[in-house]
Amino acid sequence: MASNSGIQWYFDDFEVGQVLQTGSRTVSEAEIIAFATQFDPQPFHVDHDAGAASIFGGVIASGWHTCSMMMRLVVDAFLSQSASMGSPGIEEIRWIKPVRAGDTISVQLTVREVRPSRSKPDRGVILLLWEASNQHGEPVATIKGLGMFGCRPAPSSL
Amino acid sequence: MASNSGIQWYFDDFEVGQVLQTGSRTVSEAEIIAFATQFDPQPFHVDHDAGAASIFGGVIASGWHTCSMMMRLVVDAFLSQSASMGSPGIEEIRWIKPVRAGDTISVQLTVREVRPSRSKPDRGVILLLWEASNQHGEPVATIKGLGMFGCRPAPSSL
Protein backbone atom coordinates (compact mmCIF):
# COMPACT_ATOMS: atom_id res chain seq x y z
CA MET A 1 0.00 0.00 0.00
CA ALA A 2 1.59 3.25 -1.15
CA SER A 3 -0.22 5.08 1.67
CA ASN A 4 2.01 3.31 4.19
CA SER A 5 5.09 5.12 2.93
CA GLY A 6 5.13 7.58 5.86
CA ILE A 7 5.30 4.78 8.41
CA GLN A 8 8.73 4.16 9.85
CA TRP A 9 7.81 2.13 12.94
CA TYR A 10 5.98 -1.14 12.58
CA PHE A 11 5.69 -3.76 15.34
CA ASP A 12 8.58 -5.61 13.67
CA ASP A 13 10.91 -2.66 14.18
CA PHE A 14 10.99 -2.79 17.99
CA GLU A 15 13.66 -4.73 19.91
CA VAL A 16 14.03 -5.08 23.68
CA GLY A 17 16.64 -2.60 24.91
CA GLN A 18 16.18 -0.04 22.11
CA VAL A 19 16.39 3.55 23.38
CA LEU A 20 14.79 6.60 21.80
CA GLN A 21 15.13 10.21 22.93
CA THR A 22 12.34 12.75 22.40
CA GLY A 23 12.67 16.48 21.92
CA SER A 24 11.93 18.83 24.82
CA ARG A 25 9.06 21.05 25.92
CA THR A 26 8.95 24.02 28.31
CA VAL A 27 5.81 24.66 30.33
CA SER A 28 4.64 28.08 31.57
CA GLU A 29 2.64 28.88 34.71
CA ALA A 30 -0.21 29.99 32.42
CA GLU A 31 -0.24 26.57 30.73
CA ILE A 32 -0.13 24.75 34.08
CA ILE A 33 -3.05 26.81 35.38
CA ALA A 34 -5.04 26.48 32.12
CA PHE A 35 -4.78 22.67 32.13
CA ALA A 36 -5.57 22.34 35.82
CA THR A 37 -8.50 24.77 35.66
CA GLN A 38 -10.14 22.35 33.21
CA PHE A 39 -9.12 19.02 34.67
CA ASP A 40 -7.49 19.21 38.11
CA PRO A 41 -8.47 22.41 39.96
CA GLN A 42 -6.67 21.66 43.23
CA PRO A 43 -5.35 24.91 44.77
CA PHE A 44 -1.65 24.03 44.31
CA HIS A 45 -2.27 23.55 40.55
CA VAL A 46 -4.42 26.60 39.76
CA ASP A 47 -3.47 29.43 42.11
CA HIS A 48 -0.08 31.15 42.33
CA ASP A 49 -0.46 32.13 46.00
CA ALA A 50 -2.01 28.83 47.09
CA GLY A 51 0.84 27.01 45.36
CA ALA A 52 3.42 29.12 47.19
CA ALA A 53 1.73 28.39 50.53
CA SER A 54 1.41 24.64 49.84
CA ILE A 55 3.80 21.82 50.72
CA PHE A 56 5.14 22.23 47.15
CA GLY A 57 6.24 25.87 47.59
CA GLY A 58 4.81 26.94 44.23
CA VAL A 59 2.33 26.04 41.50
CA ILE A 60 3.04 22.57 40.12
CA ALA A 61 1.66 20.86 37.03
CA SER A 62 -1.13 18.32 37.45
CA GLY A 63 0.32 14.83 37.08
CA TRP A 64 -2.10 14.32 34.18
CA HIS A 65 -0.68 17.43 32.52
CA THR A 66 2.84 16.03 32.93
CA CYS A 67 1.73 12.73 31.33
CA SER A 68 -0.03 14.60 28.51
CA MET A 69 3.11 16.65 27.80
CA MET A 70 5.15 13.43 27.77
CA MET A 71 2.64 11.97 25.32
CA ARG A 72 3.08 14.91 22.95
CA LEU A 73 6.85 14.46 23.04
CA VAL A 74 6.44 10.75 22.29
CA VAL A 75 3.98 11.38 19.44
CA ASP A 76 6.38 13.87 17.85
CA ALA A 77 9.43 11.63 18.39
CA PHE A 78 8.07 8.51 16.68
CA LEU A 79 4.42 7.65 17.29
CA SER A 80 3.18 9.90 14.48
CA GLN A 81 5.40 7.96 12.06
CA SER A 82 4.32 4.56 13.41
CA ALA A 83 1.67 1.95 12.69
CA SER A 84 0.12 2.77 16.09
CA MET A 85 -3.24 1.17 16.78
CA GLY A 86 -3.76 2.84 20.15
CA SER A 87 -3.00 1.61 23.62
CA PRO A 88 -4.67 -0.95 25.87
CA GLY A 89 -3.31 0.82 28.93
CA ILE A 90 -0.54 1.77 31.30
CA GLU A 91 1.23 -0.55 33.73
CA GLU A 92 2.50 2.12 36.13
CA ILE A 93 2.99 5.88 36.53
CA ARG A 94 5.27 7.43 39.12
CA TRP A 95 5.24 11.19 39.73
CA ILE A 96 8.69 11.60 41.21
CA LYS A 97 9.28 15.33 41.38
CA PRO A 98 6.93 18.25 40.70
CA VAL A 99 7.02 19.89 37.27
CA ARG A 100 7.11 23.64 37.87
CA ALA A 101 6.51 26.73 35.73
CA GLY A 102 9.50 27.27 33.45
CA ASP A 103 10.64 23.64 33.59
CA THR A 104 11.77 21.99 30.36
CA ILE A 105 11.12 18.28 30.16
CA SER A 106 12.23 15.58 27.76
CA VAL A 107 11.60 11.83 27.67
CA GLN A 108 13.82 8.82 27.15
CA LEU A 109 12.02 5.74 25.87
CA THR A 110 13.30 2.21 26.38
CA VAL A 111 11.67 -0.86 24.82
CA ARG A 112 11.06 -3.31 27.67
CA GLU A 113 8.90 -6.03 26.08
CA VAL A 114 7.80 -7.06 22.59
CA ARG A 115 4.69 -9.26 22.58
CA PRO A 116 3.25 -10.58 19.30
CA SER A 117 -0.55 -10.90 19.45
CA ARG A 118 -1.66 -14.49 19.98
CA SER A 119 -5.01 -14.03 18.29
CA LYS A 120 -4.18 -11.48 15.55
CA PRO A 121 -0.97 -12.13 13.59
CA ASP A 122 -1.01 -8.65 12.01
CA ARG A 123 -0.17 -6.78 15.24
CA GLY A 124 1.54 -6.87 18.61
CA VAL A 125 1.98 -4.98 21.87
CA ILE A 126 5.11 -3.11 22.96
CA LEU A 127 5.88 -2.24 26.61
CA LEU A 128 7.85 1.01 26.73
CA LEU A 129 9.44 2.68 29.75
CA TRP A 130 9.07 6.47 29.48
CA GLU A 131 11.48 8.41 31.72
CA ALA A 132 10.92 12.17 31.89
CA SER A 133 13.57 14.48 33.28
CA ASN A 134 13.77 18.24 33.71
CA GLN A 135 16.39 20.77 32.59
CA HIS A 136 18.55 19.86 35.62
CA GLY A 137 18.62 16.19 34.59
CA GLU A 138 16.38 15.30 37.53
CA PRO A 139 13.79 12.53 36.97
CA VAL A 140 10.26 13.94 37.22
CA ALA A 141 8.04 11.05 36.11
CA THR A 142 8.07 7.54 34.68
CA ILE A 143 5.40 5.70 32.72
CA LYS A 144 5.37 2.02 31.81
CA GLY A 145 3.08 2.17 28.80
CA LEU A 146 1.60 -0.38 26.43
CA GLY A 147 1.20 0.35 22.74
CA MET A 148 -0.34 -1.76 19.99
CA PHE A 149 1.33 -1.59 16.59
CA GLY A 150 0.57 -3.13 13.23
CA CYS A 151 3.12 -5.45 11.61
CA ARG A 152 4.99 -4.50 8.45
CA PRO A 153 2.92 -5.62 5.44
CA ALA A 154 4.30 -8.72 3.72
CA PRO A 155 6.32 -7.91 0.56
CA SER A 156 3.68 -9.56 -1.61
CA SER A 157 1.14 -6.94 -0.57
CA LEU A 158 3.40 -3.96 -1.33
CA MET B 1 -6.83 25.37 62.65
CA ALA B 2 -10.05 27.13 61.62
CA SER B 3 -8.89 27.06 57.98
CA ASN B 4 -9.41 23.29 57.93
CA SER B 5 -13.17 23.69 58.23
CA GLY B 6 -13.77 22.98 54.51
CA ILE B 7 -12.03 19.61 54.67
CA GLN B 8 -14.36 16.64 54.83
CA TRP B 9 -11.96 13.84 53.83
CA TYR B 10 -8.88 13.15 55.92
CA PHE B 11 -6.80 9.97 55.69
CA ASP B 12 -8.71 8.68 58.72
CA ASP B 13 -12.02 8.86 56.86
CA PHE B 14 -11.22 6.16 54.27
CA GLU B 15 -12.16 2.51 54.79
CA VAL B 16 -11.53 -0.43 52.48
CA GLY B 17 -14.68 -1.14 50.48
CA GLN B 18 -16.12 2.39 50.61
CA VAL B 19 -17.77 3.42 47.33
CA LEU B 20 -18.21 6.97 46.02
CA GLN B 21 -20.01 8.03 42.85
CA THR B 22 -18.95 11.13 40.92
CA GLY B 23 -21.13 13.38 38.80
CA SER B 24 -21.01 13.07 35.01
CA ARG B 25 -19.42 14.94 32.12
CA THR B 26 -20.25 15.01 28.40
CA VAL B 27 -17.46 15.51 25.87
CA SER B 28 -17.86 17.11 22.45
CA GLU B 29 -15.89 16.40 19.27
CA ALA B 30 -14.47 19.94 19.50
CA GLU B 31 -13.15 19.20 23.02
CA ILE B 32 -11.67 15.86 21.93
CA ILE B 33 -9.89 17.53 19.00
CA ALA B 34 -8.73 20.52 21.09
CA PHE B 35 -7.12 18.28 23.73
CA ALA B 36 -5.50 15.98 21.19
CA THR B 37 -4.22 18.86 19.05
CA GLN B 38 -2.19 19.95 22.08
CA PHE B 39 -1.14 16.62 23.52
CA ASP B 40 -1.88 13.61 21.30
CA PRO B 41 -2.21 14.60 17.63
CA GLN B 42 -2.68 11.11 16.21
CA PRO B 43 -5.05 11.23 13.19
CA PHE B 44 -7.87 9.28 14.89
CA HIS B 45 -7.91 11.85 17.74
CA VAL B 46 -7.71 15.13 15.78
CA ASP B 47 -9.39 14.63 12.40
CA HIS B 48 -13.04 13.81 11.78
CA ASP B 49 -12.43 12.04 8.46
CA ALA B 50 -9.28 10.21 9.60
CA GLY B 51 -11.19 9.01 12.66
CA ALA B 52 -14.02 7.70 10.47
CA ALA B 53 -11.53 5.83 8.26
CA SER B 54 -9.59 4.38 11.23
CA ILE B 55 -10.08 1.06 13.02
CA PHE B 56 -12.17 3.07 15.54
CA GLY B 57 -14.77 4.25 13.00
CA GLY B 58 -14.79 7.82 14.33
CA VAL B 59 -12.82 10.37 16.34
CA ILE B 60 -12.03 9.03 19.82
CA ALA B 61 -10.69 10.85 22.87
CA SER B 62 -7.00 10.50 23.72
CA GLY B 63 -6.63 8.11 26.63
CA TRP B 64 -4.95 10.96 28.51
CA HIS B 65 -8.01 13.13 27.87
CA THR B 66 -10.23 10.38 29.28
CA CYS B 67 -8.04 10.18 32.40
CA SER B 68 -8.03 13.97 32.75
CA MET B 69 -11.83 14.09 32.51
CA MET B 70 -12.03 11.33 35.14
CA MET B 71 -9.70 13.40 37.35
CA ARG B 72 -11.99 16.42 37.13
CA LEU B 73 -14.98 14.29 38.14
CA VAL B 74 -12.99 12.94 41.12
CA VAL B 75 -11.79 16.41 42.17
CA ASP B 76 -15.37 17.71 42.10
CA ALA B 77 -16.77 14.64 43.89
CA PHE B 78 -14.47 14.72 46.91
CA LEU B 79 -10.82 15.57 46.31
CA SER B 80 -11.44 19.34 46.49
CA GLN B 81 -12.90 18.83 49.98
CA SER B 82 -10.07 16.56 51.12
CA ALA B 83 -6.70 16.87 52.84
CA SER B 84 -5.06 15.75 49.54
CA MET B 85 -1.28 16.03 49.46
CA GLY B 86 -0.97 14.92 45.83
CA SER B 87 -0.26 11.50 44.39
CA PRO B 88 2.86 9.36 44.19
CA GLY B 89 1.49 7.63 41.11
CA ILE B 90 -0.84 5.21 39.39
CA GLU B 91 -0.72 1.41 39.61
CA GLU B 92 -2.58 0.67 36.39
CA ILE B 93 -4.72 2.25 33.67
CA ARG B 94 -6.86 0.25 31.27
CA TRP B 95 -8.51 1.93 28.28
CA ILE B 96 -11.34 -0.52 27.69
CA LYS B 97 -13.60 1.16 25.16
CA PRO B 98 -13.15 4.36 23.15
CA VAL B 99 -14.73 7.56 24.47
CA ARG B 100 -16.50 9.21 21.52
CA ALA B 101 -17.92 12.64 20.83
CA GLY B 102 -21.20 13.07 22.70
CA ASP B 103 -20.40 10.40 25.29
CA THR B 104 -21.24 11.14 28.92
CA ILE B 105 -18.94 9.52 31.45
CA SER B 106 -19.09 9.11 35.20
CA VAL B 107 -16.77 7.41 37.66
CA GLN B 108 -17.33 5.02 40.55
CA LEU B 109 -14.57 5.05 43.17
CA THR B 110 -13.86 2.13 45.48
CA VAL B 111 -11.33 2.26 48.31
CA ARG B 112 -9.02 -0.74 47.84
CA GLU B 113 -6.20 -0.13 50.34
CA VAL B 114 -5.52 2.19 53.29
CA ARG B 115 -1.80 2.47 54.12
CA PRO B 116 -0.62 4.68 57.03
CA SER B 117 2.80 6.20 56.34
CA ARG B 118 5.58 4.40 58.19
CA SER B 119 7.86 7.41 58.34
CA LYS B 120 5.36 10.28 58.68
CA PRO B 121 2.53 9.71 61.17
CA ASP B 122 0.56 12.74 59.94
CA ARG B 123 -0.38 11.17 56.57
CA GLY B 124 -1.11 8.00 54.62
CA VAL B 125 -1.70 6.64 51.14
CA ILE B 126 -5.04 5.42 49.77
CA LEU B 127 -5.35 3.07 46.76
CA LEU B 128 -8.56 3.84 44.90
CA LEU B 129 -10.10 1.96 41.97
CA TRP B 130 -11.66 4.42 39.52
CA GLU B 131 -14.18 2.82 37.13
CA ALA B 132 -15.47 5.05 34.32
CA SER B 133 -18.54 4.12 32.35
CA ASN B 134 -20.44 5.81 29.53
CA GLN B 135 -24.13 6.71 29.14
CA HIS B 136 -24.89 3.13 28.10
CA GLY B 137 -23.38 1.75 31.31
CA GLU B 138 -20.43 0.32 29.37
CA PRO B 139 -17.02 0.42 31.12
CA VAL B 140 -14.65 2.75 29.23
CA ALA B 141 -11.60 2.96 31.51
CA THR B 142 -10.25 1.96 34.91
CA ILE B 143 -7.49 3.56 36.97
CA LYS B 144 -5.88 2.15 40.10
CA GLY B 145 -4.63 5.37 41.64
CA LEU B 146 -2.65 6.28 44.73
CA GLY B 147 -3.43 9.38 46.75
CA MET B 148 -1.67 10.81 49.78
CA PHE B 149 -3.89 12.42 52.42
CA GLY B 150 -3.21 14.22 55.66
CA CYS B 151 -4.58 12.81 58.91
CA ARG B 152 -7.28 14.58 60.88
CA PRO B 153 -5.62 17.00 63.32
CA ALA B 154 -5.66 15.81 66.93
CA PRO B 155 -8.41 17.46 69.03
CA SER B 156 -5.80 19.29 71.11
CA SER B 157 -4.66 21.22 68.05
CA LEU B 158 -8.15 22.36 67.03
TrEMBL record, chains A, B:
Q: What InterPro entries does the entry give?
A: HotDog_dom_sf (IPR029069), MaoC-like_dom (IPR002539), MCH/BMMD (IPR052342)
According to the entry, every stretch annotated as the MaoC-like domain falls at 16-118
Q: Gene3D superfamilies given for it?
A: Hotdog Thioesterase (3.10.129.10)
Q: Which organism is it from?
A: Undibacterium arcticum
What does the record list as coiled-coil region(s)?
none
Q: What is this protein called?
A: MaoC family dehydratase
What top-level branch of life does the organism fall under?
A: Bacteria
Q: Which SUPFAM superfamilies match?
A: Thioesterase/thiol ester dehydrase-isomerase
Pfam family membership, one: MaoC_dehydratas
